[in-house]
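Page 42, continued from yesterday. The earlier attempt failed because a stray header line got pasted into the input along with the sequence. Redoing it now with the clean sequence only.
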Amino acid sequence: MNTEEQIHSFRENYETLRGEIGKVIVGHDSIVEGTLTSLLSGGHVLLEGVPGLGKTLLVRTLGNVLDLSFSRIQFTPDLMPADILGTNIVMETTGGKREFQFQKGPIFAHLILADEINRATPKTQSAMLEAMQEKSVTAGGEIRRLAEPFFVLATQNPIDQEGTYPLPEAQLDRFFFKLLVDYPNAAELSEVLRRTTEGHTVELNRVLTKEKMIALQKLVPQVPVASHVKDYAVRLVLATHPKSETAVPVANQYLRFGSSPRGGQALLLAGKVRALIQGRFNVSFEDIQAAARPALRHRLILNFEAEAEGITTDQLIDQILADVPKDAPVAV
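This time it went through. Structure tokens are written below.
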């Protein structure tokens, strides 16, 4: 299959997948696009918004249209790590002997819905760290590999609501994108009410197999990035590091810590997916800029001054995009 055929196949599979999701999800175009971009890049997604905006429905719909095993974990304050990873249980053999057998937890699936992940205690949240980064878990004294492909799609309510625990920075950094789910507009709300109160039924088709998903993921890294575009992504990440020679003024004023290298990886991979979706086999400056907010917003740690003035990470990212030129060389 030549390059043009690969691009056409990628776009076709993407549009088919998005079309199936659109049968259920009303609006939220940027959220759906960001979620699919993360999946095609092999990354995890954090969806944040108040209850009732369709976060869980989106992930469950993905589980229905992808031919992958699916598990849902409802995070609660009394959830324990073993409830996620699994545990050893005593089993009696045919000879009357007893032995330990490992009972796998819900983490052993391709697609994991971590619902309201910030309602669990930090001890339980930490059980997800190894799984998300290494795609393996250590349980029962053994390292056990997880299924490929492996995705965590987590939802969380705003942390100022009661009964929530902020995710640690190390875990936030494991998410490829953080997507903010907003309220629907009047037309979208009207359509939601029509579908949910008038007996509307939808039949979803499984449109993407495990093998096809892996093939699409393997195509993404092959998209070339020109050196000046990659340098631009590097300078965006370096500009977020306060008190450094490369920092922009807003980073020095409002940030305690900037983005890790994972932020740069997300910028480039998301840019490659966006290029393929638009029928191109090269990454542009606009592709990098489009990925900046979801790739960096959870990787920038605000200082007290920013919090006191109500400054958001999205506002800082917009200013960083305005301050960082596209054609300047990287300082090495």
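Notes: The two ends are 39 Å apart (CA to CA).
Reminder to self: strip header lines before submitting.
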